[in-house]
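Priority: medium. Attachment 1 of 2:
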């Protein structure tokens, strides 16, 4: 988990590009805590970032996995696709974030933490 960055204050788009280049090239995986309005980014798997946030006190029900493409303009820069999003108990039966209100909350948090992405 040493490559994973905990993001609780705004970062520059250049930092996201650096994180993306280190692992996947054009994309960075991230997990957003929609209650605490923080995220973890840079892991190989969303589950790795999820584990970091859980260690820092996040509640599983508030964590959602996304992919961020820093070279693409919003809203297409965000992809709501992750295995950690499979949650039948929360009425989310796919890898996508199905609830539009949750997707919008994730977008707002990502823009708050990566203002240059907007």
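Attachment 2 of 2:
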């Amino acid at each position: 988990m040493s490559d994973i960055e905990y993001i609780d204050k705004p970062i520059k788009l250049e930092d996201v590009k650096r994180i993306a280049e280190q692992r996947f090239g054009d994309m960075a995986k991230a997990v957003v805590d929609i209650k605490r309005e923080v995220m973890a980014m840079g892991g190989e798997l969303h589950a790795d970032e999820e584990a970091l946030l859980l260690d820092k006190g996040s509640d599983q029900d508030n964590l959602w996995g996304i992919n961020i493409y820093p070279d693409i303009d919003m809203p297409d820069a965000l992809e709501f696709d992750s295995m950690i999003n499979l949650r039948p108990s929360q009425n989310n039966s796919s890898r996508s974030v199905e609830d539009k209100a949750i997707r919008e909350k994730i977008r707002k948090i990502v823009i708050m933490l990566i203002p240059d992405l907007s």
